[in-house]
Write a structure and sequence with these properties.
This protein is α/β, with parallel strands linked by helices. About 45% of the residues lie in helices and about 10% in strands. It has helices spanning about 25-50, 60, 65-75, 85-100, 105-120, 130-140, 180-190, 205-210, 240-250; strands spanning about 10-15, 145-150, 165-170, 195-200, 215-220, 235. The protein has a six-stranded parallel beta sheet with strand order 3-2-1-4-5-6, sandwiched between helices. Helix 4 (about 85-100) crosses helix 5. The longest helix is centred in the N-terminal third of the chain and has 25 residues, at about 25-50. The radius of gyration is 22 Å and the shape is elongated.
Length: about 260
Amino acid sequence: MSTMPAAPRLDALTFDLDDTLWDNHQVMVDTESGHYAWLDAALARWLCERGRSTMPRFSERFPLPAYVARRQALAEAHPLRRGDFTWLRTQALRALLTEFGLADEDAERWADAAMQRFLTLRHQITPYPEVGDLLARLGRRYRLASITNGNVDVRRLPLAAHFPVAIAAGELLAPKPHPRPFLTALARLGTPPARTLHVGDSWRDDVEPARRLGMQTAWIAAEAPPHPLPSGVHHLTHVRELPTLLTRLDRHTSTSPLWRL
């Protein structure tokens, strides 16, 4: 970790969610395949009930990679929406279902139903075992906020109790590394950048934008960087190491230490 000279005391912490507070890889694998398989099976039953059993399966006409490609094309065509993943998915599904042969209103209904299935699966996350207790203790000392590019609504999770401020960057049409979600979080927290530390796993989306605003950052990466980090950037291999970092930073503040386990 880097060393720091005397600095203002930290009053707030902001957290990325995916791959910071939980392992998101398998969640996304299960969610991506799960909601598409559900749509394929449910749509086939619905078509059969309406005497349209001769139609091919939706997933045969449009395999999962075609859905991914359609989302990517929409993101390129609508750059302001590139971080609004729920919108991109819904619009891609509606377009594919229309091309599949459904009437517009049926395509809209089935796309919305598939997205409800997606969001149900998307929120079946398991935080790291330490996270709940860690956030509870941090919340007694710091103001906390979450900032995510993903479409997890933290208000649907038990962790919501720890985050009075929750920023969904895609809904702002300004996904990280855009400064807007950070500035919005800072404004709602009522803290200046110099008194706030951001915790995240992405150098591009978490460390760089927070650092440019004057925030300190805790960068979570499994491997230690091969070169010294810039001042104010601190390397952690796991979020469980955050209390040790905060204790160390307290020793270098211009006021007496306040964070203790």
